[in-house]
Design a protein that fits this description.
By secondary structure, this protein is mainly alpha-helical. Helices cover 75% and strands 1% of the residues. The protein is built from 15 helices and two strands. Strands 1-2 form a two-stranded antiparallel sheet.
């Protein structure tokens, strides 16, 4: 009997050790090392990066995308509600950067750790779709800025595709020589100066145009009832894009400890100073030109050629730095997969590999952008299909998994409400975005000179 008891105890001990090893292997699987710097940056640096990043050239299309389909009343309501909700969702997600003492530097890692490998890949697809589509939008915006400059200086401007290629090459060069998010710190000062210089100049011209406009501005929402509904959901998608990017944990990974407190400080900066400017440009642009405001705001501006040239040049230069923040997680994934992590980023082998990785990424993105240059559809699609779940659904799922058993009933109900409502919103806004893309494909040709 003693022998049987001893064997049973040994088997239980072996099983316990094996389970512990399995759990350890699982934990390690979702806390992989990174080729990029972790825990290095101050909250001021990250906050400034976010403020300048979200005040990029995208804001020049938001008057048209956000307010024209909604009008004044619903437009302002949606700006306030969505802005508050995205700030809250990011504030909540920042708290889960550490779980059981582990630091999660990637969104897909935390979802895989809590919900398994299938959820890891779902998050990976949603997040990388967001980042790839966002980068294509940046390339398109940079190309539009260069074409506007060319149009002001020449009576026979070149096709948009030439400027898209120039933009793609420029972004590639910057991404190659500034390989990580942390390395951007030396460029944030000049980027901040350029950002606020072009925004202030733009606001001055917009106010001047609004005051001197002789014809009565029309703020009427156009289209039949179905079109208004679909366009309204597209506008909500654009407002989400305006406020968030689905890469909070990747940004948070660069922060010094305490990473949660520091991330929330950076968020306070973004949703105060940053939001003031990108909402301000959107509202003033809509006020100045009404429902006919262009999808690219500088096309509307009056005044001398030099002002338009300077604004578009500033938009292009600022976008070089801004786009890097939004595409850095893709660079991190590729570098971690293909570079030798025990060697320097500038070691000959890693240097060559990084060149090829960056070149392939920007070649693909530039080609797709040149083929399908529909700016608004880029914004609406990744604001609906990908950003809604990443921003609103997944943080509540994380809360329920981590704190659901100990949280009060009303808190659990609140997060289940978020999951259900925003899952439905993701479906509806995706249908609206796909509908817009289908309509534009019918209306325009591939490689259109828009």
């Amino acid at each position: 009997m003693e022998g049987l008891e001893g064997n049973r105890n040994n088997n239980e001990a072996s099983l316990s050790i094996e389970q512990a090893r399995t759990k350890c292997d699982q934990d390690h699987e979702y806390t992989l090392p990174s080729a990029h710097a972790i825990g290095h940056d101050s909250w001021q640096q990250v906050g400034l990066m976010m403020v300048t990043g979200f005040n990029c050239g995208y804001i020049l299309s938001f008057s048209n995308l956000m307010l024209v389909p909604l009008g004044w009343t619903w437009g302002i309501i949606c700006l306030v509600v969505v802005g508050f909700y995205t700030a809250y969702a990011n504030w909540l997600l920042a708290a889960f950067h550490f779980i059981n003492g582990q630091r999660f530097i990637r969104y897909r890692d935390i979802m895989g750790y809590l919900y398994g490998r299938e959820m890891y890949y779902i998050t990976w697809v949603l997040q990388f779709s967001t980042l790839l589509l966002g980068n294509m939008g940046f390339i398109l915006l940079g190309g539009r800025a260069l074409k506007e400059i060319n149009s002001e200086l020449s009576e026979s401007p070149l096709r948009l595709q030439y400027f898209i290629v120039i933009t793609g090459v420029t972004y590639f060069i910057f991404a190659f020589f500034i390989p990580t998010m942390s390395k951007m710190r030396f460029w944030l000062g000049p980027s901040t100066i350029v950002t606020f210089a072009y925004i202030v100049t733009l606001l001055v011209v917009l106010v001047k145009d609004g005051k001197t406009k002789t014809t009565e501005r029309n703020y009427e929402i156009h289209g039949n009832k179905a079109e208004r509904v679909f366009n309204a959901f597209n506008a909500v998608s654009a407002i989400i894009v305006c406020n968030t990017a689905g890469l909070l944990l990747e940004i948070q990974s660069t922060l010094q400890k305490p990473a949660v407190t520091n991330m929330r400080k950076a968020l306070y900066l973004q949703y105060s100073a940053g939001l003031l400017f990108y909402y301000g440009v959107s509202i003033v642009g809509y006020w100045a030109y009404g429902a006919t405001v262009s999808e690219y705001l500088p096309e509307e501006l009056s005044g001398p050629k030099s002002v338009k040239v300077l604004i578009n040049a500033a938009v292009f230069l600022q976008s070089i730095v801004s786009q890097h923040m939004f595409v850095a997680p893709i660079h991190e994934a590729l570098d971690t997969k293909f570079l030798k992590l025990d060697e320097s980023m500038h070691w000959k082998y890693n240097f060559k590999r990084r060149f090829y990785l960056r070149a392939l990424l920007f070649m693909g993105n530039t080609f797709v952008t040149a083929a399908i240059p529909f700016m608004g559809d880029f914004v609406n699609l990744f604001g609906s299909f990908t950003l809604v779940p990443l921003t609103f659904v997944f943080p509540s799922m994380i809360f329920i998994k981590v704190k659901g058993k100990t949280a009060r009933l009303e808190k659990n109900l609140w997060h289940w409400f978020n999951i259900v409502i925003f899952s439905l919103l993701a479906i509806i806004t995706t249908i609206s975005a796909v509908r817009s893309i289908v309509n534009n494909v019918k209306e325009y040709n591939f490689f259109a000179d828009t």
